[in-house]
Amino acid sequence: LTADTLATLRQFHEQTGDEPAVAALLARGYLASGDVASLQGLARQKMASDQASADVLLHLAETIRNSDAGLQRELVARARDIAGLTIPVALAEARLLAEADHADEGLQLIDRAMLESPLQDPLRRRGMLARAAYLIDFDEPSAALAEMSALASEYAGSLEVQQFVLSQPIAWGDSTLIARAMANLKRLLGSL
Q: 98 with 106: CB under 8 angstroms?
């Protein structure tokens, strides 16, 4: 990564303020260039800010996921301090728990956040999709299939849900689920 590229990313970050995707891009730039000190400085600056954004902190935590577990935990904890137990915070904490071999605790945290958050569609639906993805990611195939089956039925009119189900390799082992999602998809595409 060239110094020019990093300078452009820093300038873009300064101009856009606390735009989560831009902060994550700058963090990726620091990672790619091996500039761990600047990456840590960016994260600590964001955590210390009076106007810290949970979204920015969570984006940074995801960006550094495989490079600095301690800093990732700090970012997620600060995001929770700011926003409380939202679905995105719960998902980030759940991933940390699952990576420490506590996937069940992570799932309970996600469920608690979903119960405590007065979600309406499309946020509720996206939360449920994220829950299903969590089950897939952390090797709970029967639970993941049951979740996807319920989603495909409950949200038969959602292209996003049908695409999610059909994009999961695990789903293709369940012919009933695939048939339901395909039938839903045909109805949706026929109505466009």
A: yes
Distances (CA, A) of 141 to 103, 146, 174: 13, 9, 11
Contact 73, 104 (CB under 8 A): no
Per the CB < 8 A criterion, the answer to whether 72 and 49 are in contact is no
**Residue 192, pLDDT above cutoff 60:** no
CB distance 152 to 165 below 8 Å: yes
**Radius of gyration for the chain, computed over Cα atoms and rounded to the nearest angstrom:** 19
- The region, left, alpha or beta by phi > 0 then psi within -120 to 50, assigned to residue 186 is alpha
Cα(159)–Cα(181) distance, integer angstroms? 10
pTM of the complete model: 0.84
| Number of other CB atoms surrounding residue 1 within 10 Å | 14
User: What count of Cα atoms within 13 Å lies in the side-chain half-sphere of residue 136?
Assistant: 17
Tell me the per-residue pLDDT of 81-117, one tens digit each, with 9 for 90 and over.
999 999 999 999 999 999 999 999 999 999 999 988 7
